[in-house]
């Protein structure tokens, strides 16, 4: 089970050929982390969290941020020591063997593809709300929500996913300037939201604080984890960091702390102005987000609750007398979120590409387009699945399933760090996780805790995906693996091939 290990020395030997200039300080790393983290989750999942936890969702942000923090410190040690393409998949291959690496890669495929679908659905909610507030257009719910959410098909989500797929295949390179502008738009929109809502907060809106108890707060934390996805962008910059032992923890913890405070201020603004109590069913129990039952209950109250909104922040601003600013926040989400879809799909195709190159998936998938020089086959396949996910599933379910894959991968990396400390203690580590025997177990326990705080439906879907992965591995991948056949060639000397868009920060 753990026998087939991809030789770490061979990976590092090729990685050394691409020595990167160490230019990033603590401030740059913190800004990189803030840019990568703030985005989809806070724009889209605030209503989901309110339905699960009520005002207690503020505490949910703290729990999710803490788990991300300890996992990030473990991730940073591996990223600094094994600065190559493939992320957690490559780390696991080098430490715990092929089967674990396969399962991590399989989980990452799930994470990225479904996350891209979730962002597409979130974008759709803001786009439809913007059309309504700008032009008075009321698109029938049947065409803007999937069957689980009271509609038939989410057409805008399908269209944006298809457009990003086409962009990835063509290989249009986004400039750093454009990405910086998009990050600025997101942060400015959220800052404006905080400035306008905090002064009109009513303390009475915060009671009852936890209407569904700590279980509701835990469930919301497991969903809100999605709002922090992207922080590992800081970890993977370890090789380009000046004095990484000092600056990496500052960048990681600093960016997560700032984002958590920002998120709590935004959540306070929502709760204290329009309230965030869950919508209950006839039996007095809270209805599950993204279900026809909740859609029907929301229709009965004329969508007059933040938990009913598909564009929670813009809706809140309109309710408190700032319709134009609500329009601006909606426009900011519409402009900024497609770059997040691109980042997620880029990550998925890269993991798939590396696994295909290792022989674990058909090499046909790693074919490069003769004109655009992009892995068009796997990009098309990814785009097809993302489009289908976006068309038929609600954002909350997609985010939760994506989180299940992320939590599995982060737990695997945290285990790998401890294993490698014991099996290879003398290897050079540009960054060492502080208090490893406390930090890594906390990360593992935190990931397991959040995983089992997800809904039973989500856990069942992840288990089904894992079983399918094991079947594919033993039926196909094990016999065709390059490592299994004695081929230990590594390609990390050219981690940026084939050329593709730079994923946005």
Automatic annotation (TrEMBL):
Q: Where in the cell is it found?
A: Membrane
CC terms in the record's Gene Ontology section: membrane
Ordered alphabetically, the record's keywords are: Membrane, Transmembrane, Transmembrane helix, Transport
Q: Which GO terms describe its molecular function?
A: amino acid transmembrane transporter activity
Source organism of this protein record: Novosphingobium lindaniclasticum LE124
Q: Could you tell me what this protein is called?
A: Amino acid permease
Q: How does it sit in the membrane?
A: Multi-pass membrane protein
| Transmembrane region(s) | 26-47, 59-82, 88-105, 112-131, 151-169, 181-202, 208-229, 250-271, 324-347, 377-399, 405-423, 435-452, 458-476
Q: Does the keyword NAD apply?
A: no
